[in-house]
Amino acid sequence: MTDIQELIEYALSISDTDGCIVLVEERTEANLRWANNDLTTNGQMTSRSFTVISIIDGPDGSSPGVESRSITTAAEIDQLVADSAAAARSAGPAEDSAPLIAPYPNEDGWDGPPSVTGIEVFHAFAQSLGQALGEARAVDLLLYGFAEHVLTTTYLASSTGLRRRWDQPTGRLELNGKSRDLTRSAWAGVPTRDFSDVDIIALVAGLSQRLEWAKRKIDLPAGRYETILPPTAVADLMVNAYWTASARDAAEGRNVYAASNGRIRVGERLSPLPLTLRSDPAAAGLQCAPFVATRSSGSEESLFDNGLPLAATDWITDGVLSNLMSNRSWSAQHDGEPRPPIDNLTLDGGGTATLDDLIASTKRGLLLTCLWYIREVDPQTLLLTGLTRDGVYLIEDGKVVGAVNNYRFNESPVDMLSRITEVGASVPTLPREWGDYFTRTAMPPVRVSDFNMSTVSQAK
């Protein structure tokens, strides 16, 4: 097979449009799955996505054409480049058109082969998994779950001479523990870069404790409860707040960050606590691509921005909304700096308490495990609805006294920021709802004074 760099250079060389960007993703994946205390499957996969973005300049702006396929040989590239150029010629000028990013110094190691993963990434983890499955059998605990590791190498090249490359490892473990009669269930999930830091024995111990709590059932009505949210639930809510943080949408009155008269809420205090919501490509353990690499345009990022360097950005600083996402074109029109999305997110409030500490200091309240089936109800308030899952517990006098029924919740994560009364220490966590798309988060456990459990749910 021809080296990927040769295929990329060939695609650029035969392009006859005013500009051309080639974006390639080489992906390898390994996974393990188990059910009912037995390993069921393991596998490895390899894939490639080859995208050509052709640009045709005109008096009213530039027109892009985008075509993506799985490509292995130079012979397949001719048609791909031709189809991309044809798409550009049939398209109208793009409102986000801008000059392509010029080359700049970087140390990406462009010439190297793509990085790969394989089943060997689970070598040490698999031994611990075997131990955990054996211990579960001995105590009538049923374990279900999967471990997945993906390594994606992204190559980005432009007719301007820009060359960038990024190797992204992405791993996650999701684990369900169930009682033998299947009436009690608990979930745990963790993100990882290489599985060297996954302690499945400790995770199983946590599941066992929660299944023990669930032996006592307590029915409680819907209502607003003081609620402790673990880091995974906080992550799901904050990712929603982040994904909708478009400066353009705010200026046009279409999201929760809009103020009156076409203004936006940047500079407004959202929380009385010193909460900082931040993205940083170089965040330790959460490293992600330090440049824009996209196949599509939107209000937050643009095809024309491919290769734009990304810098650490505060979205909320000490409780105050400080920045919203925007592409280069929109920012230039509004005298601002472009702030495209970054593939990680952290929330920190300076706290040091653990989840157990927050439980111990609770007079009476609820402890969530995780949220799921989250859907947006109202974009202008970012009201979300969804369900609790795999364990909601009642805390009394600092101790968990039993499991309560599940609920449908209705909450806006932006409004919730103003009602957080205590913040613990931030830790890497896996959003359960968004774990397929966004794994690199670090969040604290938090105490919310009146989390809205709107109705009782029959979900198990």
Describe the 3D structure.
With 460 residues, this protein is α+β, with helices and mostly antiparallel strands. It folds into 2 domains: 4-210, PmbA/TldD fold (2-Layer Sandwich); 216-460, no CATH class. The chain is built from 9 helices and 20 strands. The protein has helices spanning 4-14, 77-90, 123-138, 200-213, 231-243, 247-251, 328-333, 355-360, 413-416; strands at residues 19-35, 38-58, 61-69, 141-158, 163-179, 185-192, 217-218, 223-229, 276-279, 313-317, 320-321, 345-348, 364-378, 383-396, 399-404, 406-411, 420-423, 427-429, 441-443, 446-457. A 6-stranded antiparallel beta sheet has the order 3-2-1-4-5-6. A 6-stranded mixed beta sheet has the order 11-10-9-12-19-18, with helices on one face. The radius of gyration is 24 Å and the shape is globular. The model has no long low-confidence stretch (mean pLDDT 96).
Structural class: alpha+beta
Number of helices: 9
Taking the sheet with the most strands, its summary is: 6 strands, antiparallel
Given as residue ranges, the uncertain stretches (5+ residues, pLDDT < 50) are: none
Describe the structure concisely.
This protein is an alpha+beta fold and 460 residues long.
Can you tag this structure with a few keywords?
460 residues, alpha+beta, 2 domains, six-stranded mixed sheet, 19% helix, globular
